[in-house]
## 1
Amino acid sequence: MIKQLPLSLAGAHKRDVRTQFAALCYRIKKKKLQVLLITSRGTRRWIMPKGWPMDGQTPAGSAMQEAWEEAGVRGRSDGRCLGIYSYSKDADDLGALPCLAMVYAVEVTDLAEDYPEVGQRKRAWMSRKKAAQVVDEPELARILRDFDPREDAASA
């Protein structure tokens, strides 16, 4: 496991920090790899749980917290960044913000029925191929297509 230090956001404002941390939530069911996507609250498009850095959290810890709040996911991450994708975030008060999302794998150990944003989003398990087809961001689609924790385990 990679040791990450918690972030310190002293003096930072959301408008200054344009990096988000995303959780690529996955499970292996009947030897098939599945990923969990959720809908965004505004446009209802398919996305991964993601959010702003959190003071005192590691990047992977922030991604896991977002996975809980937005999708009801409990799980574990090894803390390695799988990749980065870019997108434009519509921030009501600031307009469109160019953002980079750092992606962290989260192996799902439990999926709660009651969580902070239940009722605000849909969630769905799908294959990597299907997930890559339904997301809007080409870089995210590539990360989803290429992701396979079973290969990482075999090469370790």
Note: The first helix runs from residue 59 to 71.
## 2
Amino acid sequence: MSWVITGGAGYIGSHVVRAFQAKGIEAVVVDDLSTGRRSFLSDDTPFVEGSILDGALLENAFDEHGVTGVVHLAGYKYAGVSVQRPLHTYQQNVTGTATLLAAMESAGVGRIVFSSSAAVYGTPDVDLVTEDTPKRPESPYGESKLIGEWLIADQAKAAPLAHTSLRYFNVVGSGAPDIFDVSPHNLFPLVFDALLAGRTPRINGDDYATPDGTCVRDYIHVADLAEAHVVAAQRLEAGEALDPVYNLGSGDGVSVGEIMRAVAEVTGIEFSPEIGPRRAGDPARIVASGERAARDLEWKMRHTLAEMVESAWAARKAAV
């Protein structure tokens, strides 16, 4: 049993790789290092540097390593920036997924776990998002993830392909002191970078219809997320039926204000966040049910908010 992890040198991908390795499953990484870091992987991790747009490279990797499945994490993940770079986003996320599926079919690789996103829902009008909540993506990124799901489902009708897609929201924390979130757009890195630079973190709006006036979101620990990928791969490898999609949600959510208070407590840096205007399109609350994933993928929230902040802060400080 050997699985390719596309995007496996990234923040999430490297955690997935280590989760596979912890279960004794060989993980072969394909990554172009556009945002990933080779240092996030152990020296003995099989590594192929290249793009998922290179079908020949993918086929060679599948054949050389006797690959039986793929966890597809590679893609352009910046929703806001995707509005300015729609063609690039579609090339990386849609053309890349189609190229990957073609290479898998050619090499006889018949299992895939796809990294999808809560961005497929857009701004939902329900308190608790389920897999059946209408999909209304509001960015090229969200659209490309939904199209990726469609591509995989359609390919499964045309060729032998066991598959599932995992939709998740805000991934935080660290499962290892040498891996940290490198995104310039995510909340935790933005807050930590501000504190390390002596600046005051900022909240975009505090007048929402929520308990403390700040937006409520699903925040899940990256190590919990990685475990769900491994279980999904193992179930597919065993020939067990899985649903086409699962939400990896917390069921209750955390407000931005709560996160700021937890950061101040964990870091020991007292601050009162600056309050800026609302960002256009930011809903007051987006929280998902993880019941189906709990049923089939052993999904659960194993980390508290304090543990999410503590692990992320320790990893970020170690990188300074």
Note: The longest helix spans residues 86-107.
## 3
Amino acid sequence: MFNVGDHVVYPFHGAGTIKDIEEKDVLGEILSYYILHFPLVDVTLMLPENRINDSGLRKVIDQSELDSLIEALQNGPDLPPTTSHFSRETENLLKSGSIIDAAHLISSLSRKQTERANGLHIQDRNHLQKARQMIASELVLVNDMSEEQAYEFIDDALLEMKQA
């Protein structure tokens, strides 16, 4: 399934690396745990192997998928006005772990931000920041970029959208 050293994405946390696979005795049962480290947020967590399929854990995208990412950043769907229902949908997009969902969210919220005279509501700003962080964390591992370069990559794609 996954091996030590694999770069993976864990929904809502972003991209990280499998540092180890440990066996633990839990109530007399030996269970395997993946030890994941997320460098951008400096978080380490243990994920039971028997919950991998339900967790949404996936490998990071390939270099060949960067064009699809740029396309998603530039052509995200329009968003409806902020409502509590929309907020739940936005949370679900972030929890999906899909880089394309996160890119669509960034595109839509960035477009909304430029259309509003007083910017985004706090909840939308938080979602935008979280989506940017998730994509940046994956770009750092996929493209061997620094964190700053990853955010520049996102901003450059959005700038091209505005100029088009």
Note: Helices lie at 52-55, 66-74, 84-96, 99-115, 122-142, 147-163.
## 4
Amino acid sequence: MQTEKYRGYTLWGHAILQQEGIPQPAKFAGSGTVTRDTKVVEVSGVLDAFDSDEEAELVGLSWCRAWVDSHG
């Protein structure tokens, strides 16, 4: 999980390991969470599946920034 402060909000990028089938390479579901003052403001749900946890987290953070920009 990655986090960052952005325009008064705390943003969280999540990567959730997907184990649909073995021996397929691991995939990670990406999502984002926007919080303010320790309260959840918005949650993205699953955005897509990615080959790395870092990519999934970065896409989640990007979604969060876009949400703040459109609702701030």
Note: The mean pLDDT is 93.
